[in-house]
Amino acid sequence: MTHRPVATGRVCRVRRFGISGRRILRLAFVVATAFVYPAWAHDPGISTAQGEMRANGLLLTTGFAPADVAHLLPASAPRAEQWGPAEFEEVRKQLLAIAPRLWEVRAGETRLPVRDARVELLPGDNVSFHVMIPAAVGANQLTLRAARIPELPAGHRQFVIIADERGSTLAKKLLSARDFTLEVPFMAMTATNAPAAPAAEFADLPSGAAFIRLGIEHIWTGYDHLLFLFALLVVCRSFRSIVGIVTCFTLAHSLTLALATLGLVNLPPRLVEPLIAASIVFVGVENLLSRGEEPRGRWALSFGFGLIHGFGFASVLRDLGVGGGAAGILMPLFTFNLGVEIGQIVIAGVVLPLVWRLRKNEKFVARGVPALSAVVALAGLYWLLERTVL
Fold first, then answer.
1. What is the pLDDT of residue 138?
2. What does pTM read for this prediction?
3. Spatial contact of 219 and 226, defined as CB atoms under 8 Å apart
4. Which terminus, N or C, of the chain has the lesser number of Cβ atoms within 10 Å?
5. What pLDDT is stored for residue 190 in this prediction?
């Protein structure tokens, strides 16, 4: 007589939750795809543009990282991730040709000419374009269109601020490929020295909301930060542990974000970016060694590495020129950090319920978590090599 094998306790538990082993693997794949697939994508980047409305016209200065400028250069132009004087001189002519085409400026239906284009390489590998837009007599509004933004990587943002000669802000906006037009209200752009009438407060998007949005977009496209946080949380066994880890990470990166933006503590990006990658490798390997269980001291670990990630967040505000003084820094600092936290909460709210459900199954803890941790460690290693030797 043939007897059917008795189901083990482990299989019974799987069936009790209504999840088969195959479905476990599928759900784990969804989690891996959400966090690990973007690991080989690059941050879409952020650029800045500053305009000064003068009596004789509008001076526009636009700054890009070399990696972003590469998307604007002809296909035949030399490429370099980091530029020194030699690399810059190789493409100076092509850059000068780009400068007049970065912006389209109109006064009503009249397109204004672009003159006096020049380009320079600033410290920190920033490529800065300068153009002059002659005065439009009698104009009460200018329309600025960042014509080349659609050619940059998807998700690229450009923060634009236009001021008068006295430093009063006339308009500011965070541009993207979805919306790359800025209206600059102005009573008159004349060749006289008559003072300009103050513009209405930024109508398209309040500056606080702009920085909140920037913070959310940065964390959602900051795949290294997300992957690090995911690796910390995937082994958590309780809600209390999750709250503790997220709180420590938030406090730590908020601290160094503030200190770095205020200029009190500073680490160069060439050191910060590899350290962020190394933190991902460390957590992924530690998860592997713990075999899916939560290691001790994760709160302290998340705080320590959170300090490093905060310097990475600060680079965004520095790229925007934030940090000129307490009066002009507190609002961007607070609202940007608020945006980062909102972005983290949204991601956690979507992914953690799925992870909790998966962790109720022993197969996921024994196999799924180590598999995900291995992929996390490999992604971190890729970034580490890319940011150091590649």
1. 66
2. 0.61
3. yes
4. N
5. 41
